[in-house]
Design brief:
The complex is a heterodimer of chains A (269) and B (439). In chain A, 43% of the residues lie in helices and 17% in strands. Chain A has 269 residues and is of the alpha/beta class. Chain A has one domain: 3-Layer(aba) Sandwich (Rossmann fold). In chain A, strands 1-2-4-3-5-6-7-8 form an eight-stranded mixed beta sheet, sandwiched between helices. Chain B has 439 residues and is an alpha/beta fold. Chain B has two domains: 284 residues, Type I PLP-dependent aspartate aminotransferase-like (Major domain) (Aspartate Aminotransferase, domain 2, 3-Layer(aba) Sandwich), CATH 3.40.640.10; 143 residues, Aspartate Aminotransferase, domain 1 (Alpha-Beta Complex). Helix content of chain B is 38%, strand content 13%. Chain B contains 17 helices and twelve strands. In chain B, the strands form two sheets. In chain B, strands 1-7-6-5-4-2-3 form a seven-stranded mixed beta sheet, with helices on both faces. Chain B has a five-stranded mixed beta sheet with strand order 8-9-12-11-10. In chain B, helix 4 packs across helix 11. The longest helix of chain B has 20 residues. Classes of the chains: A alpha/beta (269), B alpha/beta (439). The complex binds pyridoxal-5'-phosphate. The site of pyridoxal-5'-phosphate (PLP) has 15 residues of chain B, from helix 4 and helix 5.
Chain lengths: 269, 439
């Protein structure tokens, strides 16, 4: 559905259920935040499960992504402010946040800025800080096809490179590439720069008041599990879970394992 | 880190879509010959039906063996996914039924496989879908044939019977200017010789019965989605594809382009087309086609090698009137073929026999009947060499004039060159040519 945030049309996927009905029934809200150059569709399965199991689901297209035309935002701080504005616009005083990669940084920052509004944060494919290699940043600036190829290969585990998608008949390597190709020129570089420039995550973590899940893929080359160790120390009461065999694109490589981890976590949040 | 690479074509031919199964570690793709799959519990069942969890429910909709084949062809074509169907015909029908309703219109190349032509010319009009046929070489004619209700442009990479080379980039440009998708039947080229999606096509279909299987033991089709077409675009395509851009009451009120901007077409085709029309591939067939795809690069290289030798032999043979193969300088699409098909123009081509004393039809009959290695039958793309003489078989009721209008002469012979020793094939053809000349 379309929601106006700060006067701009914003697309929110609601998991196949009416958001109004969920809000009127005071169902707990879950906000899904995608990573660089992607959109809401990276959460298809997980967002549908929560929408059909007693939650209000908002899987956003961040500004400048997917169906949300205007954007992109240039910093993680701006994303946090925007996410809070989105919750206001949609009429949810409180929500749990599930973020992947860049989206996990946005979730962390939002929970630090608005601790009273955030019920829990699930950080998938996270690294805090999240330095982006100079070669990738350079490619994202000057040669997007090359940058997309780098990301696509690095995002998939050795098994994921071969396929074996849980969703019948979809070739994940092609899906991920085409989704990135849909981003307007410059969006990938803006997103990666926002990740690279977000250096305050470990300090900001001290302000987080809600439960946190740190979910990593054992074979994630973009955000290896060890890149979350400092954050796990900085976030009081964080749970770390490592998905065996999963790469960065864990929502498509291991959709059920990701979902089960989120179900267990959000039952507590 | 070094520049990362995805696996290359030959590796994907063997591996894409399959990892050894977790229970037994089977290296070959297991044949899941089962109609249905047991739910873990009621909530799991509901989750599968609601698309909250991924998995298989019933083999008309999806099956693990078929899924391996679907991923493999997607990887080889550079697409986002695919659907395996009961036949090539079923793949074409599934594409059309997914994209349009009664009242719609298709612009198709005139140089089509006879079965596709039948579907478009005679059968679909009964369901309110009309087709205009245009020479694939006439891009202006194709542009002019597009109407407000046109929903698809369709052609074959190598046309029938003259091996017209489809100008995929040129056609894609016209299609996209009009907000329309381009569907390409790539049966004759396979992804080894050309990847139409990389050339601008939006959807690709195959009769997997042919080169993909290669063994001639199974009928099957594949429909691949390139994932680039924007079904919900403002402007030229706006409102043209309500099956993909509006809520579908028949499946959870889903708006497929919202659900998955990249895979909307495949979602609808599987959740409606496979579900309701039911032209699914058997898992046994999927296994058999996979066996073929594993050696596709090796086989296609040999098909081309043999074809080139035979073409060269026939061109120089005194009993041969003409040979139609796009690698020959005299072929109308020679330049286009150099650009789009540098690895070869397939292993199916026609040549025309010189008339013997009893005329061309008799020469053709004698030619065919004296061959020993080439099999006389109505198929192409087998590992074994095949031959047919249209004027005495598929087109035998037609007059010489009607044949000529279809681009066929009384002495036209179609070969599908197989993997045998090229010298054996050439000796066999010489035997036939000798008999033809005596007739
Ligand atoms: C180019 C082409 N397309 C489609 C088909 C139809 O395929 P099937 O026989 O698998 O239904 C054929 C079969 O001869 C073909 O040659």
């Amino acid at each position: 559905m379309e929601i106006s945030v700060d006067g701009q049309g914003t697309y929110v996927y609601t998991g196949g259920k009416s958001l109004e009905a969920a809000r009127d029934a005071s169902l707990p809200a879950v906000l899904f935040i995608h990573g660089a150059a992607l959109d809401h569709s990276c959460w298809n399965l997980q967002s549908r499960w929560f929408a059909h199991h007693g939650h209000a689901v908002l899987a956003v297209d961040l500004p400048g992504h997917g169906r949300s035309a205007v954007g992109p935002l240039t910093s993680v701080a701006a994303m946090a402010a925007w996410l809070a504005a989105l919750l206001d616009a949609a009429g949810f005083p409180r929500a749990a946040l599930v973020g992947h990669s860049m989206g996990s940084l946005a979730a962390l920052e939002t929970a630090a800025c608005f601790p009273e509004r955030i019920a829990g944060i699930a950080l998938l494919g996270n690294a805090t800080p999240m330095p982006v290699s100079a070669a990738l940043l350079e490619a994202a600036k000057n040669d997007e096809p090359r940058a997309r190829n780098m990301i696509n290969v690095w995002s998939h585990s050795p098994r994921g490179q071969v396929g074996g998608n849980a969703v019948p008949g979809l070739w994940q390597i092609g899906m991920n590439l085409r989704l990135m190709e849909r981003a307007a020129p410059g969006v990938l570089h803006t997103d990666l720069s926002a990740c690279n420039d977000y250096r305050s995550g470990l300090e900001r973590a001290a302000r987080v008041a809600c439960p946190a899940l740190i979910l990593s893929g054992s074979h994630d080359l973009m955000a290896p599990p060890k890149a979350t160790l400092a954050l796990a120390d900085a976030l009081p009461g964080a749970t770390r879970v490592i998905l065996n065999g999963a790469g960065h694109a864990m929502m498509s490589e291991q959709p059920d394992a990701v979902l089960d981890a989120l179900i267990a976590f959000l039952a507590r949040a | 880190m070094a520049e990362p690479k995805c696996y290359r074509f030959d590796t994907l031919s063997l591996h894409a879509g399959q990892v050894p199964d977790s229970q037994y570690g089977a290296r070959a793709t297991p044949i899941y010959l089962t109609t249905s799959f047991v739910f873990k519990d009621s909530d799991h069942a509901a989750s599968l039906f609601n698309m909250e969890r991924a998995g298989h429910v019933y083999s008309r909709i999806s099956n693990p063996t078929n899924a391996v084949l679907e991923e493999r062809i997607s990887a080889l074509e550079g697409g986002v996914g695919a659907i395996a169907t009961a036949s090539g015909q079923a793949a074409l029908h599934l594409a059309i039924a997914t994209l349009m309703d009664a009242g719609s219109h298709i612009v198709a190349s005139r140089a089509l496989y006879g079965g596709s032509h039948n579907l478009l010319e005679y059968t679909l009009p009964r369901f309110g879908i009309a087709t205009s046929f245009v020479s694939p070489r006439d891009l202006d004619g194709i542009r002019a044939a597009i109407r407000p209700n046109t929903r698809l442009i369709f052609g074959e990479t190598l046309g029938n019977p003259g091996l017209d080379v489809l100008d995929v980039p040129g056609l894609a440009q016209i299609a996209h200017e009009h907000g329309l998708p381009l569907l390409v039947d790539a049966t004759f080229t396979t992804p080894y010789l050309m990847q139409p999606l990389e050339q601008g096509a939006d959807l690709v279909m195959h009769s997997a019965t042919k080169f993909l299987g290669g063994h001639g033991v199974a009928i099957g089709g594949l429909l691949v989605d390139g994932g680039r077409f924007d079904w919900d675009r403002e402007g030229a395509s706006a409102g043209k594809f309500p099956t993909l851009s509006e809520a579908y009451e028949g499946f959870h009120g889903m708006d497929f382009a919202e659900e998955s901007p990249v895979a909307a077409f495949l979602l609808r085709a599987r959740r409606e087309g496979l579900r309701d029309f039911g032209a699914a591939m058997s898992p046994l067939t999927a296994f058999q086609i996979l066996q073929g795809v594993e050696t596709l690069p090796l086989r296609m290289a040999r098909h081309i090698d043999n074809t080139r030798k035979i073409v060269a032999h026939l061109v120089a043979h005194p009993q041969v009137e003409s040979v139609s193969y796009p690698e020959l300088p005299g072929h109308p699409d020679h330049e286009l073929a150099k650009r789009l098909l540098p690895k070869g123009c397939g292993a199916v081509f026609t040549f025309v026999l010189k008339a013997g004393a009893g005329g061309s039809r008799l020469a053709g009959k004698r030619f065919i009947e004296s061959l020993r290695v080439f099999s006389h039958l109505a198929n192409v793309g087998d590992a074994k060499s095949l031959v047919i003489h249209p004027a005495s078989t598929t087109h035998f009721r037609m007059s010489a004039e009607a044949l000529a209008a279809a681009g066929i002469f009384e002495g036209t012979v179609r070969l599908s060159v197989g993997l045998e020793n090229a010298e054996d094939l050439i000796e066999d053809l010489n035997r036939g040519l000798y008999a033809a000349q005596k007739s």
